[in-house]
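I keep forgetting this: the sequence line spells out the residues, with the fold written below as integer tokens. I include a record here:
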Amino acid sequence: GLAREHDKFPGRPHLARLAYERSFWVQEPMRTELDVHAALCYPALYPIDYPLIWAGSRPHPTYGIEHLRILSPENTLIHMALHAMYNLEGWSRHDVDATLLIQAEHINWDRLVDHAGAWGTTPALYFLLQRTAANLGAAVPATTLATLRPGPVRRRVGAWVLRPAEGIMGPRHRRLRQLVSQAAMTKSFGAAIRFQLRYLAARLLDA
């Protein structure tokens, strides 16, 4: 076939059950890795309303097939922000993609703020939009940034977890940053701790 599934967790079935994506190698026209998501991120970390996401989606503009859909511009920005935060990226392709999206699409800023607040993604979204506005000149309304702006503690934590690492970030250093970002940048500290306990249990069961 054109694609072959790639097991990201060989011999680790309990970790695989926590995953929200499946990975495939597409063979033609060139070898490319394709991730198929069942969620925007780990569901335990953010209470995202997926029926609302589907209701706001629209057909892919290139193919014109009703059931081949893409996220709304607002939810695409949230998706980019979550990936940048999870990957601890203070600067990445997501910044460029977000800037181009803001230039090309009409963004309903009020809807974006409402979704971010309801789903606990406000800090991640703030840091992405603040960077695109400051570094790439993205037309993000000042009122939107002011509404999304976290308190001083979260801003300091966010600046720490997203700051460029000197040299290559070791696994322990990266893990510490991920733990801190999940505890401080999600809607519920308790949900972040419960997820980490499930992750630890999966690691132990797979050992």
In short: DSSP finds ten helices and five strands in the chain. The mean pLDDT is 92. The radius of gyration is 18 Å.
